[in-house]
Fold Cytochrome c1, heme protein, mitochondrial.
Amino acid sequence: MMAAIVRVDRAVRTTCRKFSRQNRLYSSSNGVEWRESGCCKTIRGKTMRPWLGILAGMIGSCGALLYYLNESSVKAFGELEITLPKYPWAFKGVFSTFDHAALRRGWTVYRTVCRTCHSLQYVRFLDLVDATHTIEEVKQIAAEFEVEDGPDNEGNYYMRPAKLSDKVPSLYPNEEAARAANLGAYPPDLTYITLAHHNGVNYIFSLLTGFMDPPAGIKLEDGQYFNPYFPGGRTSMPPMLYDGMVEYDDGTLATESQMAKDVVEFLFWTANPEHDTRKVMMMKGLGICLILIASLLHMNRRYWSHIRSRRLAYAPNSVSREPQLPRVWHDENGIRGTNKRNTLMKR
Ligand code: HEC
């Protein structure tokens, strides 16, 4: 029953719009009788429109205000900060995945260079399987590390070669030891570092390649290095990457920027290991949604087609139209009758 009412209503609306073009509006209560009215003005869609506009405007301005406050508050902290360049990361596209050869090279850079100071304590060797190396290679890599295990039957802790299920062991047992070895500065764990910084990948790439001599007027303490990308400009991390520092097993030339790019892509992977799967899932989801939306549109057209293709004629009230009876008819006793008026009109 509801559906029928809605249909009549819709037919009326359509016709009303047609007539409003001629500066006159007509409506009907049951879809049959037409009378002049202002029905189009009270249609919900029309009167709601200004309110929707105001709502959208309010949401827009609140968003713009929040964005402005956020941006300006970030800028207020670091006076010496410079704008980060935007690099064309291959994995940033909507449909692009990691370059797994780059991840493999990135592990080499971490293993050879960064691990001397930074831990990667939330990554297990198992995670590397099929992401950077084959399982056989990862087993070999793991065996090169030693982890503490125990207690054994005599209650002693002992060292053993790492297994696939172990986390990548840190060089320092705790933060204090790491600080003591780095003149009081703490080299943070690198697993989630790309997420810990605003614009993480561009920041770390710029940081790694941005070491330079301090400009005039800036004095560095012992063990400090100048890097314009580091907040404040003075960092305790020494410049670590030099051309040819590592040897890649795929023969790629190990320039400073190549190593920085590879290690940053690797660190983005450690922070987002589900990145590739997520994008594949998104593509599947979008595909399903497209099919659903297409069939909904089709259903909608089909459902309303008899209304859209209906033609409504308008007869003004001033022209009186009497009900038309059939010209020849039979009553309940089977007696034949004729419609005199029609007969007359015919003559
Ligand atoms: C000699 C030790 C050492 C090595 C090797 C090293 N770092 Fe660092 N790193 C540090 C120290 C110390 C800090 C802390 C700097 C500070 O707080 O001033 C740091 C900080 C960082 C930070 C954080 C910067 C910030 O703004 O919070 C990142 C990112 C980083 N290092 C990346 C790397 C990468 C990638 C490598 C390998 C290519 C690497 N580091 C190699 C010592 C090292």
The beta strands are 26-27, 35-36, 146-149, 158-161, 225-226, 234-235, 328-330, 336-338. The first helix runs from residue 2 to 20. The CA atoms of residues 225 and 235 lie 5 Å apart.
